Amino acid sequence: MENNMEKINFLTKKANWVRRETLKIHKISPETRVASSLSAVEIFTTLYYGDILKFNPKEPLDDVRDRFIISKGHGSISMYPLLADLGFYDMSELNIVSKKGSFLGGIPDPIIPGYETINGSLGHGLGVGCGIALGLKERNSDSKVYVIVGDGELNEGSNWEAIMFANQHNINNLTLIIDNNRASMLDFSKNILNLESISEKFEAFNWNVEEVDGHNINELYNIFEKNKTESRNKPKVIIANTIKGKGVEFLEKSPLSHILSIKPEDIDKLID
Amino acid sequence: MKKTMRDTFLEEIYLKMKNNKKIFFLSADFGAPALDKIRDDFPTRFINVGIAEQNLINVATGLALEGFCVYAYAIAPFITMRCYEQIRVNLAILSQLRDLNVNIIGVGAGFSYDMSGPTHHCLEDLNILNTLANIEVFSPSDYLLAKDYVNTTIEDIHPKYIRFDAKPLQALNIENQNFKDGFRCIDGKKVCIISTGFMSQKAFNIIEDLKEKEEDENIEVGLIDLYILKNFNKEQLIQEIEKYDYILTMQEGFLSSGGLDSIILNLINNSDLNKKVINYGVDNKYTFEIGDREHLHQLNNMGYSDIYKKIVTLVK
Questions:
Q1: Residue closest to B254 by CA, chosen among B262, B246, B265
Q2: B89 and B188, same structural domain?
Q3: One domain for residues B16 and B158
Q4: What is the pLDDT of residue A259?
Q5: Which of B85, B90, B97 is closest, CB to CB, to A128?
Q6: B187 plus B102 within the same structural domain
Q7: How many Å apart are CA A128 and CA B56, to the nearest integer?
Q8: Which structural domain, as residue segments, surrounds residue B271?
Q9: How many CB atoms lie under 10 A from the CB of residue B56?
Q10: Residue B138 pairs with which residues in a beta bridge?
Q11: Are A240 and A177 in contact (CB under 8 A)?
Q12: Together in a domain, B90 and B122
């Protein structure tokens, strides 16, 4: 238990660092989607620093890695500092995000070590993840597939083709994480296409469903840890309830947080 | 003997799948007599993804990322246009960074499904697939070419679009010197038809008939059957075109929008050639009137006699 507490404290510190660095990147590159990147900070941090994902910064496409597909690519700028800190590339790259010659753009692409697939367009990751998961099973690989999508992204019909497919083929080495920040670009999700209840929808599609507070590291760690080792015969979805723009008050409250930028002087105050 | 490209190709794939465990065959609920053996004998490597072309391409991409050679199979207009963005993002863009061997097989090129109306007529696929980077387009004119392409689908690790006619068609008696050049020729004088897919069948018949019926005129019309539409041997093709005064392009597809006519005009424009080019194809409208394939061609000014008469006036 004490070890666990130590781990949670460590992860909490790392998440705070990732959040601060994400804000710093946003100061350099105001066109980055900061609100959706902040909602997933604890999810990314727990997966990478919590010994959940298998990865190899020296050989990013190492065959034994777990495949983590970040389908909500725009909302993953918080991965930039994390991947640098873990050694996928040099920390100095963070100073030139979206600048000439950088591989770290406003929306990440798989020229970035650590990114698996193209993800600037929404609704692709889950289907590709299903194919990878089937391929891994055919190859008798123990590697697992994780896909993260935003709840707004679930508006894309291609996801539901993949959701039916994953159930039909019992793709049990696949975990879908929904960053359920309940906001799209122009409004809160419920005012556009109300998906509630997401858990009931996935249950109806015969998936294994868990729900978690996506900012509570203790909860996230426990659920990911259990998911890593449990045996199941179905695909699993973890609905992580999050807040878009987490940590920045005016973003948290705005239905338009997706397209809002934070003023540089406000960022300085936040990271003080 | 007439035979479908689809069945010939699938029979070969079946044999390959027996020895090559790296092959997956995915279908969007679309069958073929020759597919039944694949379904029965390789139940884990044949997957019917359902009527879901977007997921078909995405699952194919995932399997290819894990090193498999994947065939994705459906009706041509649906496997190209329902999931165009999946092809663009996950195959065209991603394949520039990762090895991906996905072979998209679309059955029903052009007016193949003549009676089924404009949703099933496929007049855009060559144009829109050509416009994507990193994807090869293969448009055979008979089942023997389809068979000859099977090894390429396994050995060349990049995304490909393979468009098959749906109808059983004759094997064309045209010598093929080098398959990788992407075209094969019948030599002629003055006038040459450049065509792809089913239109090469039609061109072949017109050329044979001209020889027979217009014997006195000694008409020898050339034919270039272009089946690889991007990475064909450009220098060699320019040399062939150089022999003629008039070039007629023939395609079952929309004109002036990136298809065969655009490819040939571009090639000529970027060379030192100065040729008169006449393009036969579909001119910016869909065809609702019911009729057989030749009737649909006639409605689009690309009927047998339209082209036959034009050639007679050119050679005289």
A1: B262
A2: no
A3: yes
A4: 87
A5: B90
A6: no
A7: 9
A8: 179-315
A9: 33
A10: B162, B228
A11: yes
A12: yes
Give residue for tokens 């030139």.
A96
The verdict on a CB contact (< 8 Å) between B52 and A169 is no
Residues B113, B245 within the same domain: no
Q: How many CB atoms lie within 10 A of CB B289?
A: 8
Q: Are B280 and B259 in contact (CB under 8 A)?
A: no
Instruction: Please tell me whether the peptide bond between A197 and the residue prior to it is cis, using omega within 30 degrees of 0.
Output: yes
Q: What's the CA gap between B215 and B45, in Å, rounded?
A: 55
Regarding whether B232 and B154 lie in a shared domain, the answer is: no
Question: pLDDT tens across B83-132, in order?
Answer: 999 999 999 999 999 999 999 999 999 999 999 999 999 999 999 999 99
Cα(B61)–Cα(B97) distance, rounded to whole angstroms? 13
State both tokens at A216. Answer: 């509570």
pTM of the complete model: 0.97
Comparing CA positions, the residue from B162, B129, B125 lying closest to residue B147 is B162
Residues on chain B touching A138 (C-beta within 8 angstroms): 24, 44-45, 63, 66, 68
Q: What is the pLDDT of residue A2?
A: 60
Residue B3 near residue B164 (C-beta atoms within 8 A): no
**Dist. CA B314–CA B316, nearest whole Å:** 6
- A169 contact B CB<8A: yes
Task: Pick the last residue of a domain from B152, B170, B188.
Answer: B170
| ipTM greater than 0.85 | yes
Give the residue from B145, B170, B195 where a domain finishes. Answer: B170
B173–chain A nearest CA distance, Å? 41
Count of domains forming chain B: 2
Residue B74 vs residues A118, A230, B78: alpha-carbon distances, Å = 24, 37, 7
The shortest CB-CB distance from B85 to any of A121, A138, A164 is to A121
- Cα–Cα distance measured from residue A158 to residue A118, given in angstroms and rounded to the nearest whole number: 15
- Alpha carbon distances (Å) from A13 to A16, A18, A20, A172, A212: 5, 9, 11, 32, 20
Q: What are A79's two structure tokens?
A: 């991965």
Co-location of B166 and B210 in the same domain:
no
Query: What residues have CB less than 8 Å from B246, skipping those under 6 apart?
Result: B190, B191, B192, B275, B276, B277, B278, B314
Please tell me whether residues B218 and B275 are part of one structural domain: yes
Mean of pLDDT over chain B: 96
Q: Torsions phi, psi of B122, nearest 5?
A: -115, 90
Q: Which residue of A has its CA nearest to B59?
A: A131
